[in-house]
Structures are given as C-alpha cells and as structure tokens.
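queue> pop job 88
queue> type: inverse folding (structure -> sequence)
queue> payload:
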C-alpha cells in the first residue's frame, strides 16, 4: 500500500477571494478535495484578501500570506515576495506551484528541497511585459529552467515549456468538470452568455462587443455579461459607446444558483479570449450542453468543431458570423448534444488519478536519485580503505 502524501499547493487565488475567485482557484479546490478523500493531507497557500481567514474546507487547509488589501495588484506582488520565506518553512512530500501572473514562475525550487511540480495556470509573461513595459518574460524564461516536473494542461503548454526547459519531465493532464453541470436542465433560451473575469486584454470582451454590434440586427438573443474584474468600467463605457445599452446586460458576479440559471437559459456561451491556458468555465459550459463561440487559439486546441464555432483570431467580422450561428436552431441542438459528449471526456476524478500517479512517480524518481549517490559514495570509501590497507 502506498504511503499517503502531504501536498502543498501554491495558488495565489482562493475560491472565496472576492477580488478574483477565478478558474484556477476552482480547479485547485476540485483536485485538492479529491486528494483529501483519497487520504492525503492537502494545504493551499494563497494570497490574503479583505476578510480572509485561514480555514479548513472539505478537509483542505487554506492558509494565506502577503497583504489583504482591496488592490489585487498589491496583493499579487506581496504574495510573490512572500513565497520564498513561506516555501522554506513548508513540510510536505510534494509542492504544486500554480504559475502566477505577471511573472509566471515563483522560483520556489530555489527555496526548498521538496520536489516542485508546475501547473501553468498563468503562462503569459510576454503579454504582461508588453502591458506593463517590464521584463517579466525574462523572469519566466530563466525561471522555467530551474524546474524538474510539469503538469501541462495541453500539448500547447507542454511544447511552450519545453522550449524553455527541454529536460523537464511532463505529464499532460487537462482540467476536469464537476458532475453537477451535466445535470443542468436546459430551459427556453433567452440570451448568449459571457461569464468570466473582466480583463479585456485576455478575455477579448472588446472584440465580443464589437462583433455583437455588427451582428445585432440579425440576432434575436441579447448578450448577458457576468463576472467581475478590473475592466468593469471600461466594458460599461464601451457598451454605451457602441449603442448597445438595450441589448447587452451586465449582471455582476455569478456563482451557485445564479450561475446555474444563467447557463440553463443560454443558447450558447461566448468565449472570445485572446489567451487561455485551458478555460475551466468553457468546459463547464460544454457540460451544461452549450456550444462555445471562440477564436481558434492554441489554448483552446482541446475543442473541436462539433461543439465549438471557431473564428479566425481575432477577426471581428468572423466572430460576428459565429454569433449569427445561434439563430440556426438545428445546428444549436446538434452542437448542444456534442458539447456534453465532449465534456464527458474530462472528469475531476480522472484528473486526480493522473496527479496522484505522477506524484508517486516523482517521489520514486527522487528516491532513486538519492540512493545512487549514496551507493557510489560507499564504493569510493571502501576503495580508499582498501588502498590504505595495502600501504
């Protein structure tokens, strides 16, 4: 019987963080609670946020470091700067580091001898370098070289990492989806849905609104935008500028029953991202029986044309055409069926089984590497002893 493990996740986000609470926080939670059910001890080391308290939730120990201000950028910087000391004090068998914007790497292997596994939750330092005019991409480039183990979400992230670190040992494990989304009963479609973080640069909400403006006269479905984030006011201003106040509704954050209702009343989900490492919500939408309207980008290469209408990046004209497909009732019914079939290939239980087997593989590898030098050193000592006796 294999030993139960102590596992620490370094995840800036927390599912209860009102400033973020994004897809990776949900993924960490889903994986961690299943690891706990298997008998492992799991701690998630997250950033402080207003009102944050260390807690145990579903057997997972959530602890927080850094600053709990209302400014997510300040909290982000404080978390990154707090990681070295925090990691140096960690006692565990495995550390899982979720890459963190804007620099991706937290450089945690420099501060611990515990094996560190990367999950590339944010792997876009080059984009942030251009946005903030700072050399974050150089930190990502050189930092990536210090890691030994990687859990890429797709072939795209696997190839990207191997360009930076050709010796890294990787196992591709996509994200999963919870069973409750398959149980959502579709109601009469009332809208097209966007749900996500209000980050125009990544999520492409500006492209969505421009495309919707072009298609609006031929669409019988309004656009609902749900979520929160730093660009909320910019989105509202753009809606007004494009004259879409009557056809586009911003409804705030959507969790639990609100999220379920929005999904059940959607004809399709708009996911116009410029960049994605995977998209946990995209998978949830498919499981809910909703086709996706996307740009054909590398981070969404796990999709297929049977369940997603894929426009040329980043053509507003083509995305407007994708939006118009919702008016084809027959096509939507077929794609809805295909969406759930495709989502059925991604379960959290299978994800956790892959994680667990990779962790044991890592520990066996580390153990063998420790034993070999020790054996060699004993051989050398005996040779020296024999040489001394001969003299």
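queue> result:
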């Amino acid at each position: 019987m294999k030993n139960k493990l102590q596992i620490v996740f370094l995840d800036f986000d927390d599912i209860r963080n009102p400033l973020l609470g994004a897809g990776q926080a949900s993924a960490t939670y889903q994986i961690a609670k299943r690891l706990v059910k298997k008998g492992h001890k799991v701690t998630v080391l997250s950033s402080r946020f207003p009102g944050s308290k260390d807690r145990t939730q579903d057997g997972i120990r959530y602890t927080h470091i850094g600053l709990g201000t209302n400014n997510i950028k300040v909290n982000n910087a404080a978390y990154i700067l707090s990681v070295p000391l925090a990691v140096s004090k960690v006692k565990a068998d495995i550390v899982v580091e979720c890459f963190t914007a804007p620099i991706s790497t937290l450089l945690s292997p420099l501060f611990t001898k515990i094996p560190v596994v990367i999950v590339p939750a944010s792997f876009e330092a080059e984009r942030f370098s251009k946005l903030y005019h700072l050399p974050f991409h150089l930190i990502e480039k050189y930092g990536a070289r210090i890691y030994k183990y990687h859990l890429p979400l797709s072939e795209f992230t696997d190839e990207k990492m191997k360009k930076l670190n050709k010796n890294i040992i990787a196992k591709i494990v996509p994200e999963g989806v919870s069973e409750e989304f398959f149980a959502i009963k579709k109601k009469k479609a009332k809208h097209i849905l966007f749900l996500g973080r209000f980050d125009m640069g990544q999520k492409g909400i500006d492209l969505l609104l421009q495309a919707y403006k072009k298609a609006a006269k031929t669409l019988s479905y309004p656009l609902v935008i749900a979520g929160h984030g730093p660009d909320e006011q910019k989105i509202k201003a753009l809606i007004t500028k494009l004259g879409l106040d009557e056809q586009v509704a911003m409804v705030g954050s959507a969790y639990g029953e609100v999220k379920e209702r929005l999904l059940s009343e959607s004809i399709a989900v708009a996911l116009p991202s410029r960049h994605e490492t995977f998209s946990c919500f995209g998978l949830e939408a498919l499981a809910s029986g909703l086709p996706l309207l996307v740009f054909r980008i590398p981070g969404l290469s796990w999709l297929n044309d049977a369940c997603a209408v894929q426009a040329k990046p980043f053509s507003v004209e083509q995305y407007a055409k994708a939006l118009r497909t919702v008016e084809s009732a027959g096509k939507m019914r077929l794609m809805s069926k295909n969406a759930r079939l495709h989502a059925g290939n991604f379960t959290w239980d299978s994800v956790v089984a892959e994680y667990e087997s990779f962790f044991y593989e890592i520990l066996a590898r580390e153990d063998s590497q420790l034993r070999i030098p020790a054996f060699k050193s004993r051989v050398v000592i005996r040779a020296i002893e024999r040489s001394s006796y001969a003299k």
